[in-house]
Write a structure and sequence with these properties.
The structure is a homodimer of 342-residue chains.
Chain A: H1 8-15, H2 19-26, H3 34-46, H4 53-60, E1 65-70, H5 76-91, E2 95-100, H6 105-117, E3 122-125, H7 135-142, E4 147-150, E5 160-164, H8 166-179, E6 185-189, H9 195-210, E7 220-222, H10 227-238, E8 246-249, H11 252-265, E9 274-276, E10 293-295, H12 298-314, E11 324-327, E12 330-332
Parallel strand pairs in A: 1-2, 1-3, 3-4, 4-5, 5-11, 6-7, 6-8, 8-9
Antiparallel strand pairs in A: 10-12
The first copy, chain A, binds a DNA duplex (30 and 30 nucleotides) through residues 7-9, 17-21, 23-24, 27, 30-33, 36, 51-52, 54-56, 58-61.
InterPro entries (chains A, B): HTH_LacI, LacI/GalR-like_sensor, Lambda_DNA-bd_dom_sf, Peripla_BP_I
GO molecular function, one term (chains A, B): DNA binding
Domain HTH lacI-type (chains A, B): 6-60
Chain lengths: 342, 342
DNA sequence: GCACACTGCGCAACTGTTTGCACAAAAATT
DNA sequence: AATTTTTGTGCAAACAGTTGCGCAGTGTGC
């Protein structure tokens, strides 16, 4: 047990050559004789030599690893995005170190600090809902560490970003609701600090305006992600004098908890109220009624982010203009909005 | 941009002392004068010095990182277990590198190899469903690299493991079904190679036997995890001449797809057939009817695994006898098994 | 006045790998 | 035969940090 890994030195000593020669032989350097090379290859195979990645990273002053910081991996979007990142990163020879900020800015800062000192090659980040200060990102940029945002991005930092068009997605969803005859449409948004929630709010407002519907501010709620917060905000909507005919939610989880509040109030879905979620989590097609929702290309999002990051890492000498990739999302229409058109 | 991180050497040169002195001053070594220490601390703060973890890891011949290998992070159990691992590991100063085997043994082997060369401090692993050869684990043990299994373990390898009592959990579930008056009880198992599925099968069989019910082999199915496979096996059960009165499934996903097959056949749940799942995924309380299921302590499982691993890492000189931690699971009774007792 | 202890700091080795340079021997060219 | 080129190999430095040891210089005790 506890046998040390075979090193170049081990091979060199057994063969009575220098470490440098062994290193070059393994790389098939032209200046090493065929005879020496073959001896080295043979022994390396016998002793199961594998280069020590840690030593290599140290020498290159950089780990072959990418730091991935997401709010929570149990959110389906992040779990799938991580698969996309892993897929591409591994193919390019990078490991990924996944960290959860748990929606805490302090945690996010600590993670980034920790990973900087570990010399990760770059970062792929989706902001915590709390994050309202961006010093830790500008710090990355000052140090020249590659950075890509995805999904929850940071507009004040000039970095690569991969997102969907949240404005348009929510516009389309509201448009769909209007087309089924709804006019009193509510928006159950996420925390007010979450930018993408506000982008969706804008899309919602624009769609209403474009259809000649005045926005009723009482129909716009901002809730936290926990069940209790959603329920209490949803109750404000459905127990009011004029419950909405439709509700667009910021996420499927919020939509589902909103459905619970509706059922509690005795409202039938979709007859009394239509509901639209966001993310197309697998659960949405299993519940009753199946939920109309917006499918985000999580895997592709992760993969694209990884591509952008690896491009930055491998061209660290040249300055690349930050790019904004907007992926398309799809409205998946299911029973929860299945009203007869008027 | 691209400013190098401050190193001990930078501090040493500015202060005209040796690197060794700076290193010791930062560690408050008694042999360094107060004056020197203060000068070092001041400059270190000014230049934002942070020790380079990569260099430290290199020197210690080991990364301060733990390799975590799971089948898929989208499975709720693994996502929660990862949170538990991260929670404990971070508190102890370790990062975690999460990799998905995607249920492939080849991928699992490749990941382990890759992480070995990166000199991770240890591994926390849940087997892929395909894994039937354990050389890559015995190899870890020969190299003296700490290893902990959780959930899907490997009985042939003598390592720490954290599991629930799958036999008992499934026994209890079947017992519950019998207590509600069911006698024709089916088992929708996972792939035949997955050990825990077979443990649950044994619990199922024992519970039937203890209640004087003969096991009907036609009521035992082994399916893959994809929806189509589950549906086709479930149909064999429900379209037969004598559909079962109850079905115990290996996972919530399998249970839910089995429910779909039941509904398709016109069977009402729980009136015609009771269903029990496994894992208590959040979706189980949202579907109609809410699913009776077995709650596994995912977070605790991960945390315990991390504890055992860190213990191994930090006592690598002494040999610790591998330990088997069995955590308790809980049967959560919901509507899907709510029949009147006979 | 001499031995001894203590104080404050630097030297050097070590971790595994790569790579520019040097240098000898062999081969090729004058 | 003398020079140049080519070939095959080794030396040493570099990456950032830690740590045993040594070595001055100062202080203490008898």
């Amino acid at each position: 047990m506890n046998k040390r890994q075979t090193t170049l030195k081990d091979l060199a000593e057994k063969l009575n050559v220098s470490v440098a020669t062994v290193s070059r032989a393994l790389k098939d350097h032209p200046r090493i004789s065929q005879k020496t090379k073959e001896a080295v290859w043979q022994l390396a195979a016998d002793l199961d030599y594998e280069p020590n990645q840690l030593a290599l990273s140290f020498r290159n002053r950089q780990m072959n690893a990418i730091g991935v910081v997401v709010p929570k991996i149990i959110y389906h979007l992040y779990a799938t995005a991580i698969s996309g990142i892993e897929d591409y990163a591994n193919a390019q020879g990078y490991n990924i170190i996944i960290c959860q900020s748990n929606e805490s800015m302090e945690r996010e800062k600590a993670i980034i600090n920790e990973l900087i000192t570990s010399q990760v090659a770059g970062f792929i980040i989706s902001l915590s809902s709390e994050t309202n200060n961006f010093d830790h990102f500008t710090r990355l940029q000052k140090k020249g560490i590659p950075l890509v945002f995805f999904n929850r991005e940071c507009e004040d930092v000039d970095a690569d970003r991969v997102i969907i068009d949240n404005f348009q997605a929510s516009y389309d969803a509201v448009d769909h609701l209007i087309s089924t005859g709804c006019r009193r449409i509510a928006y159950m948004g996420g925390p007010a600090e979450v930018q993408i929630s506000n982008h969706r709010l804008k899309g919602y407002q624009k769609a209403l305006a474009d259809n000649g519907i005045t926005v009723d501010e009482r129909l716009v709620q901002h809730c936290e992600f926990d069940k209790e917060s959603v329920l209490s905000h949803a109750r404000r909507l459905v127990y009011g004098p004029q419950p909405p005919e439709a509700i667009l939610a910021f996420s499927d989880q919020i939509a589902i908890n909103t459905m619970i509040a509706c059922k509690e109030r005795g409202l039938k879905i979709p007859e009394d109220v239509s509901i639209v979620g966001f993310n197309n989590e697998p659960v949405t097609e299993l519940i009753e009624p199946p939920l109309t929702t917006i499918d985000q290309p999580g895997f592709l999002m992760g993969k694209t982010a990884a591509e952008l990051l690896v491009r930055q890492i491998e061209n660290s000498d040249t300055v690349i203009k930050p790019e904004k990739r907007i992926l398309s999302s799809t409205l998946i229409i299911r029973k929860s909005t299945n009203r007869n058109r008027l």
